[in-house]
Design goal:
The structure is a single chain. This protein is an alpha/beta fold. The chain has two domains: about 150 residues, Leucine Aminopeptidase, subunit E, domain 1; about 325 residues, Aminopeptidase (3-Layer(aba) Sandwich), CATH 3.40.630.10. Helix content is about 30%, strand content about 20%. The protein has 13 helices and 21 strands. Strands 8, 9, 10, 11, 12, 15, 16, 17 and 19 form a nine-stranded mixed sheet that branches. A seven-stranded mixed sheet has the order 1-7-6-2-5-4-3, with helices on one face. Strand 6, helix 2 and strand 7 form a beta-alpha-beta unit. The chain starts with 12 loop residues before the first strand and ends in a 5-residue tail after the last helix. Bound molecules: zinc ion (ZN). The site of zinc ion (ZN) has 6 residues, from loops.
Length: about 475
């Protein structure tokens, strides 16, 4: 996959068309069912429609003697922010139920009262497929750009989402630590950001001892990606993303079933890069920094072992109780680096624990923060825009599980609250005065649903973008 293709969006929008038109009409649930003005009987099929989640229903109607067709979309009017979700469902519906889709262009009714920019993001997201190694023969529904949609914004957001999904979907034999750094470098250059990639063995051993400890077991050397963009006078936002390109678990080897998806263990890095691309593409007036530790957690003669003790970048000593709890180690050094300069907020993304899935399942990432009000605010935003996260506590009572006989701390917990103990571990490396957000996500769609192709999945990316725009940017109306 060429680096430029990581961002490439499919051709699914038209500005004008010679195709036949399929009108998409939107109605609020409870209102009158639309009837054709010209008093012709509309036939509806499939007869039972398509009930989608709690937002409403889509039916497909056509006028038999002419070629006029339309999709009637009835939505719950209390869910005005579900625009993206609705777009993905209409897209899927069109694919599944319109046999001659390639001769039609879809167009939204003028009175389609919905955030059309978000709708277009949804249209792109629905069209996403990972085709680097297998061609697709899907016919993609074409939509005429809705009048009020902000094209630049929609495309930027979609590109960030595509980038995140593509990076996750790339297998580990293709995407190693240095290839992840290459992708970051390509993106940084595109946006004229200043980037440093620290690969030097000695520097890593001295400055990022935990990154080095985890990554040295692989023949593919670890690195730390660090880039900055924007005006230093603006508010400083630092994103940190876990970049484990493959996680065998190390000597505490994962069983096959748990190892299978571990190419996605750089999902945090993918989210940070996707969000960064959007922020830079939209030229948000912020000072952005992105830090990514990129490693492969392998088994070899040079791999770290249980009971090894390392001194972290901040001077704390850490005893390894489980080599599969490597994500928190590499993040610890990078959070320390982040805190060595002043930040208005630090956000880290990581596919960190199975315990977060046990608590909240695949679809709802766990959110932690040293500021409960902030966590609640972000949770509310996430539910509002259908990109959910759920606040879990940094429960100090479990901190004693990190005790070690011979070091300042160990890298695991002992109770089932593994997502919390992982977050508490990270908390030890964050400056207590800086607002800090930690998101523990799955970054994978296991089933394949509208807008969520089976495979790598962006989670919390739109939520964090909304939070950043709301708190750090005054958008022009
Ligand atoms: Zn692991």
């Amino acid at each position: 996959m060429k680096r430029a293709d990581l961002f490439t969006l499919p051709d699914i929008f038209l500005t004008k068309t010679e195709r036949k038109i399929l009108q998409v009409s939107l109605h609020a649930a409870g209102g009158n069912r639309p009837s054709a003005k010209d008093n012709i009987d509309w036939k509806s099929f499939p007869t039972n429609g398509n009930n989608f989640r709690d937002h409403g229903k889509i039916t497909h109607e056509y006028k038999e003697k002419t070629d006029t067709r339309r999709l009637i979309v009835t939505i719950d009017p209390t869910r005005p922010n579900a625009a993206m979700d609705i777009a993905t469902l209409i897209f899927q519906y069109a694919q599944d139920h319109i046999p001659d889709l390639d001769s039609y262009a879809l167009t939204l009714d003028d009175n389609f009262e919905i955030d059309t920019t978000q709708f277009c993001v949804g249209w792109y997201v629905a069209a996403y497929q990972f085709t680097a190694f297998k061609k697709s023969h899907r016919t993609l529904p074409q939509l005429i750009w809705p009048k009020n949609a902000d094209k630049k914004r929609a495309q930027n957001i979609a590109q960030g989402i595509y980038l995140a999904r593509n990076l996750i979907n790339l297998p580990a034999n293709i995407l190693g630590p240095s290839e992840l750094a290459d992708a970051a470098q390509f993106m940084a250059q595109k946006h004229e950001a200043k980037i440093t990639v620290i690969k030097d063995e000695n520097t890593l051993r001295k400055s990022f001892p935990l990154v080095h400890a985890v990554g040295k077991g692989s023949q593919r050397a670890p690195c730390v990606i660090d880039f900055s963009w924007g005006n230093p006078k603006h508010k400083k936002i630092t994103l940190v993303g876990k970049g484990v390109v493959f996680d065998t678990g190390g000597y505490d080897l994962k069983p096959s079933s748990a190892m299978l998806l571990m190419k996605k263990d750089m999902g945090g890095a993918a989210m940070a890069l996707g969000l960064a691309h959007i922020m830079m593409g939209l030229k948000l007036p912020v000072h952005l920094r992105v830090i990514i530790p990129a490693v492969e957690n392998s088994v070899s003669g040079s791999a770290f072992r249980p009971m090894d003790i390392f001194t972290a970048r901040n001077g704390k000593t850490v005893e390894i109780h489980n080599t599969d709890a490597e994500g928190r180690l590499i993040l610890a050094d990078c959070l320390t680096l982040a805190c060595e300069s002043k930040n208005d907020v630090i956000i880290d993304f990581a596919t960190l624990t199975g315990a977060a899935r046990a608590a909240l399942g695949f679809d709802v990432p766990a959110l932690f923060s040293n500021d409960s009000d902030l966590a609640q605010e972000i949770q509310n935003i996430s539910l509002h825009i259908d990109d959910p996260v759920w606040h879990l506590p940094l429960w100090r009572g479990y901190a004693s599980e990190m005790k070690s006989n011979h070091a300042d701390m160990n890298n695991t917990g002992t109770s089932p609250a593994g997502a919390i103990t992982a977050a508490l571990f990270l908390h030890e490396f964050v400056d207590k005065k800086t607002p800090w957000i930690h998101i523990d996500h799955y970054a994978w769609e296991p089933y394949g649903r509208p807008g969520r192709a089976k495979g790598g999945l962006d989670q919390s990316l739109r939520t964090m973008l909304t939070y950043i725009e709301k708190n750090f940017v005054t958008r022009k109306k």
